[in-house]
Structure formats: structure tokens, C-alpha cells
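[Meeting: bench + compute handoff]

Bench side (C.D.) handed over the final construct sequence. Compute side (W.E.) agreed to return the predicted structure before the next meeting so the bench team could plan truncations. Sequence as handed over:
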Amino acid sequence: MEKIDLVVSLLREHDRTSWVADQVASTFAQGVSMNVKDAQADIAFYSLEPSDLTSRERQKREKYETTRPYTDGEKLELLAEALETLYIDLPAIQAAGLEALQDLGGGGASIEFAAPDEPEQGLHGYTIELRHLQERRELLNVSFEQFRQELMK
């Protein structure tokens, strides 16, 4: 589906989101893993299964795991969940952490996030200004909801 490819491509273009694109593409490539017995009830899998299997062959296969490709709908949902984690859940976790620090008596105006490994420290670090935190979260919530509605059309 073109929407999925476009969004993944856009995510790859930016240093802050390229890791999300990599994770989503990797998950797509792995496919949906399931036990063969459960897979027989899955229409997307059933269409891939050879039609000339005997009942004995089908019974033998029930012990094994199998995979099938994600459907476009499943890919859309997975992509939406990944972006929700990135733009809604992670900022909420950051906000909770910052509030906890302030409750402990922290008087800083900003917090800098940096990778713990020295070679990567300059690559993925960023700073959050505490005074803009709530505005940023509200903007991300509204923007994400608009994006999700467009994505699911």
C-alpha cells in the first residue's frame, strides 16, 4: 500500500525517527507468526495453504509454527501503533519522569536526554524545555489524531 511505504520512507528521512522505520520494516518482514492449528482459522493464511493436503498431512502440520505476511490493514494498524508509541506514549513517560524529578526538588529549566554509550552520545540526544512540555504534548496529541484519521482513510 502506498500510504504505508510513504510514511515509512518519511520516517527514514529523519535521524530522530529512522529507528522507528527500521523497526516497523523489520516487523513487516517477519510476518505474523502463529501456530498452524490457529492459522487454519485465519483467512489470510488459509489462502496461502496448499489445497491438496490430506487430512493426515494437515494434522501433522498442526504441531508447527508458521508465518504469513501482514495484510495492508494489519500493516496500517502496526504503523499507527508505532507512531502512537513515539508521539504519545514516550512524551507521556518523559513528562511523568520530569514531574517526578521536580517533585524531588529539582529546579532545572530543561532536561537533556543523551545516549549512554559514548560513540552515540551526540547522535540521538535532545533537550526538553520544561516550560514547553505541556504545550508540546497537546500539540502531539492533536497532530497524531489528525494523522491517524488520514492514515486510516
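W.E. noted at the follow-up: The helical segments are 2-13, 18-30, 36-39, 43-46, 55-61, 72-103, 133-151. C.D. will use this when planning the next construct.
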